[in-house]
Amino acid sequence: MTDKITVGGVSVDTRHWIGGERVASTDTFTDVSPIDGSTIGEISRGTATEAAAAVTAAKAAFPAWAATSRTERARILHAIADGVEKRLEELAIVETTDNGALLRSHRRGVMPRVAHNFRFFADWLLKLDHEDFETRGHTNHVSWDPAGPCVLITPWNAPLMLATWKVAPALAAGNTVVLKPAEWSPLTASLLADIAAEAGLPAGVLNVVQGYGSEIGDALTSHPDVRRISFTGSVPTARRITESAAANLTPLSLELGGKSPLLVFADADLDLAVDLAVEQYDNAGQVCLAATRFLVEESVAEEFTRRFVERASGLKQGDPRDEATDIGPTIHPRQLEKIDGFVQRAVAAGARAVIGGHREGSQYYAPTLLTGVAQDSEIVQEEVFGPVLTLQTFPTEEEAVRLANDTRFGLAATVATGDPERAERVTAQLVAGTVWVNCFFIRDLRAPFGGARQSGVGREGGNWSFDFYCDVKNTVTAP
Ligand code: NAD
């Protein structure tokens, strides 16, 4: 195994980053590019041994980092953001090669947001207020104490964005971190380790380990010295992590899947509604927040569908490095297989593919819209995580809300309506962590982010992140 590989002209270390040093495992796993199925390289395959070493390093580095002043912690986080900005092009091409999402999105949207994650939590840390209350002459002093080593486990659909959404607040709060990226997209986390070291983050404060969830992931989440586990990924994995965290009662933050609706009322600006609808194919539909269930008022359903099909048919599918491409590949042939399975079973059960409904070669899935789907069918109830959308119609507002809420998920919902009173009524009834009205994917890091029902446990963002990553303490002092 070579320690370094070159990806899109960028050198990437394939080993773990533990205690400020590169550490290799004897075993490896193969990282494959979704663009064409080619092998990118062999990556260190961590086990319980590397998990223990990383947690030990994080534990050893914790006291000094926790005692580092807020201004110094914030300064280093800004320096990491500078490093991300300096290497933005490199991060973008490596991420695109590794996970197949559009290069233009990585350049213009995702990587700037990665830098922003660090800047935002650095600045928020400096604004975080200690609270004081008085009780019969006694002072209650509420402080945000760092919790300790945190294990952060992330998925492949937006690897560095989702990792830094956790790493930045965890470090800002004074914690040390063991980050395990997904085995289908391990590379940018390794680059982040380099950037953080160059920015002056002390050894052991950020550790990056690679490998399979069932191996090193399990060992990390069951480790007794871990004080927080923040996980983004699927519901079945969240169940397993919850079980392994139970032994030590380690607090968990879970950001999970969704089956979010887009409600289109007859009073909506239909052009806007179609814009919002077409956006759901972003990242080949591999977006947790994607509004994959279109619920359209009966009177405008035909017109909405006509305009949607016209727009969607113009989307260009292909190499994500090409600026003109709108839809890239799916992450892995296994994911493609899964997506096609969902679609074929839906069609067999009576659904009609208005567009798509088939693979495009070995890595791509045609953007698909299915109609004629029943509310209790698998395709309406289960997360597909591919470019597969369904369309159902509704006769009344009441029925729209009923359909929207009738899944086990509750991550997000989008409402297209021209009537502000309706917007207020409907959003109040929707079960979702985030609701967008006449817009989609607008995120403010000060606002809470998370899911209702099986879409998650807890909220992150602004103070909510510090609530999770800190042991909030009340010190009562006599007069
Ligand atoms: P996944 O659950 O298969 O894997 C996520 C991570 O968990 C990977 O790093 C994996 O190695 C690790 N893992 C697997 N088994 C483990 C175990 N037993 N112990 C510890 N770690 C383990 O999810 P995925 O397929 O990578 O990602 C897609 C899912 O993520 C979708 O359901 C999507 O909706 C969800 N997601 C949610 C959000 C959100 O913010 N709510 C954002 C992005 C993706």
UniProtKB/TrEMBL annotation:
Has UniProt tagged this entry with the keyword Transferase? no
Q: Protein name, please?
A: Aldehyde dehydrogenase
**Superkingdom of the source?**
Bacteria
Q: Does the keyword Isomerase apply?
A: no
Q: Where is the Aldehyde dehydrogenase domain?
A: 26-474
Q: Would you identify the family this protein belongs to, as annotated? A: Belongs to the aldehyde dehydrogenase family.
Q: Which UniProt keywords apply?
A: Oxidoreductase
PANTHER family linked? ALDEHYDE DEHYDROGENASE-RELATED
| GO molecular function terms listed in the Swiss-Prot or TrEMBL record | oxidoreductase activity, acting on the aldehyde or oxo group of donors, NAD or NADP as acceptor
Q: Which residues form the active site?
A: 255
InterPro entries linked: Ald_DH/histidinol_DH, Ald_DH_C, Ald_DH_CS_CYS, Ald_DH_CS_GLU, Ald_DH_N, Aldehyde_DH_dom
